[in-house]
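User: Here's a protein and a ligand (nickel (II) ion). What would the complex look like?
Assistant: Let me lay out the input and then the predicted complex.
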Amino acid sequence: MTREKILKARDLKVRFYTDEGQVNAVEGVDIDLYETDVLGIVGESGSGKSVTGLTIMGLIESPGRVDGGEIWYRNQSLVAEYESDPSVETDGDYVDILTLSDEARRRLRARSFSMVFQDPMESFDPSYTVGEQIAEAVEVQRRLADDTSGREYGLRELILSTVSNSYTFVSEQSRERAVELLEMVGLSDPEQRAQEYPHQFSGGMLQRAILAQALAADPDILIADEPTSALDVTIQAQILELLADIQEQTDMSIMLITHNLGVVARACEHVGVMYAGEIVEYAHIERILDEPEHPYTRGLMQSVPDIQVDDQQLRPISGNVPSLMDAEMGDHCYFADRCPEAKDECFAEKPPDVMLNDEHMSKCVLAEPDAQSITPDTIEQGGE
Ligand SMILES: Nc1ncnc2c1ncn2[C@@H]1O[C@H](COP(=O)(O)OP(=O)(O)OP(=O)(O)O)[C@@H](O)[C@H]1O
Ligand code: NI
């Protein structure tokens, strides 16, 4: 059985117009996220991973701008709501959320899309208890669910109030749900924990609480941006396991952003490798581990201890990630100057997206389609 894609981003372009010049943070990115998928987005610092996540959430702010592309989100009730609205693009079961109003995007953040951010300390207000803050997120979701248009409650104010943490009325029901959520993310004694303040939580516990908060809206899509990097290895592993558990319990789709291919290998089903604002390789995780195609992916694999179990000698990729300044980019492979296999043409023209088979893409002139192309069905079965 083929699975539907819950999200299809096409040719995304996101730029920052800074005093130093135009930064092409995301340049022509496609993302395919399947229902119940855990998709890893992996790449070195500054490759555009977080900007991609923020773009899907609708959180790019000045001097940043989404300069092109489409983000198709599969949601029947959203299609029904906007089908007759000429300003919104719909296509069968999908809505291009980039054509929605700011208010509609905010509503999506409250009930369909959640993001767990890089810095756990920034996710909670130190002056309220953890339970109170999660209950508030639940309350917002509850009111939205009671009223599908959301407008009668002054939705803008409602959502802004959760962002600014000014006090919202929180029902007993929402408080109970907050405790349930804390239990769901594996905190022991959740009732007690709910009454504590963020500073009373350890790093790992805080990470779990953040996840609980993100789950308050029962989202379709969860974007987790480096949820583990600040934590020690054992706790990292526990959180990844928890993410996988929660995925199974809730059936949501997860996009996991990380610079660690070991994390991806452990937690993800598909992986997109990002370099200099582009997806340079995309495939099923097993395929990437068995037959990485792009020289950058192979370089990443040699720099990660979890994967090279037999060979603990790590070889970081030499050289630096490009600046992404528009003036310095141009038509060539952005990895060419660090690539051990680069040919003359790599410095002279942009590499094509080569499809090795229906589910494996590599943006490299060296890539060649499989001799006997594997059908999507074979991959699907092989991957379950
Ligand atoms: N607010 C901003 N203003 C200017 N440039 C920005 C802004 N936010 C991001 N960028 C630039 O966009 C590019 C991509 O950044 P992004 O944060 O997406 O990288 P990343 O892959 O998430 O890196 P990391 O692993 O360090 O989090 C970088 O060159 C960054 O400097
Ligand atoms: Ni980032």
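Summary: The first strand starts at residue 5 and ends at 18.
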